[in-house]
Write a structure and sequence with these properties.
The structure is a single chain. This protein has about 230 residues and is mainly α. It folds into two domains: about 5-185, Transferase(Phosphotransferase), domain 1; about 200-230. The chain is about 40% helix and about 5% strand. It has nine helices and four strands; from the N terminus they run ββββααααααααα. The protein has helices at about 35-40, 70-85, 95-105, 110-115, 120-130, 135-140, 145-155, 165-170, 205-230, and strands at about 5, 15-20, 25, 35. The strands form two sheets. A two-stranded antiparallel ribbon has the order 1-4. It has a two-stranded antiparallel sheet with strand order 2-3. β2 and β3 form a beta hairpin. The longest helix is centred in the last third of the chain and has 26 residues, at about 205-230. Residues about 40-55 have low confidence and may be disordered. Pfam families: Pkinase. This is Putative serine/threonine-protein kinase C05D10.2. GO terms for molecular function: ATP binding; protein serine/threonine kinase activity.
């Protein structure tokens, strides 16, 4: 996904599948978004695919969920922390409580941090939460090795521009023994949904669109086979 310009938007422990050989797959792309389309959206039209705070499960939401940047990497940090702590890092009971729990753990925000998420009205809430009693990730995960804590600390970063990218995370010493560039194929094209996100259709219209796309794909494959033997 790292080079397809797509975001899962629902990355939680239950959507990370692991088999006996430690082969990992991501499941449930029902709320996935094309970052290409998000970048092109202006946030004003009904078809704009920008994420809302209802997209990701609250406990794994990145603070900037409204503007889409790097949210899967934040979720990855939460999942890794949960695996080590054996319980969620930020089990917020509401959106506000979720923000309070996150802010109480992260370093004090700078003006650059606030600007990075384009928080708008929420900026006031974020500034208020900085006065709460604080505890660091190290205190939250006291028995975690330094190398592991370093990875989590660089994933759970408020400012998405300072958060590790997927490529940087793969180069981190914590996963060095498992990182094999030859086993990590990349795709040159971006993922763009065939139907515009936010498009409202009836059940019949969705069904007809699906049949039409399946028929077109079938005809393309058929023509490829025919041309191969001509």
């Amino acid at each position: 996904m790292r080079n397809l310009k797509a975001t899962d938007a629902l990355l939680t422990p239950s959507n990370v599948l692991l088999n006996a050989h430690c082969h990992c797959k991501i499941a449930d792309f029902g709320l996935a978004r094309s970052v290409t389309q998000i970048d092109e959206g202006n946030g004003e039209t009904a078809s704009d695919p920008t994420l809302t705070d209802y997209v990701a499960t609250r406990w794994y939401r990145a603070p900037e969920i409204l503007v889409h940047k790097g949210i899967d990497m934040w979720s990855l940090g939460c999942i890794l922390g949960e695996m080590l702590l054996e319980k969620p890092l930020f089990p917020g009971s509401s959106t506000i409580n979720q923000v309070e729990r996150i802010m109480a753990t992260l370093p004090l925000l700078t003006r650059e941090d606030l600007i990075s998420v384009s928080a708008g009205y929420a900026t006031h809430l974020l500034e208020k939460t900085q006065n709460a009693l604080r505890r660091s990730l190290k205190n939250l995960l006291p028995e975690v090795p330094e190398k592991t804590l370093n990875l989590i600390s660089n994933l759970i970063v408020f400012n998405p521009n300072h958060r590790l990218t997927t490529v940087e995370a793969l180069e981190h010493p914590y996963v060095a023994d498992f990182h094999r560039r030859s086993n990590e194929p990349e795709r040159s094209s971006n993922v763009v949904p065939l139907l515009r996100l936010g498009l409202q259709l009836s059940v019949v219209e969705y069904r007809n669109k699906l049949y039409s796309m399946m028929d077109e794909k079938h005809r393309k494959h058929k023509n490829m086979w025919v041309n191969t033997f001509i």
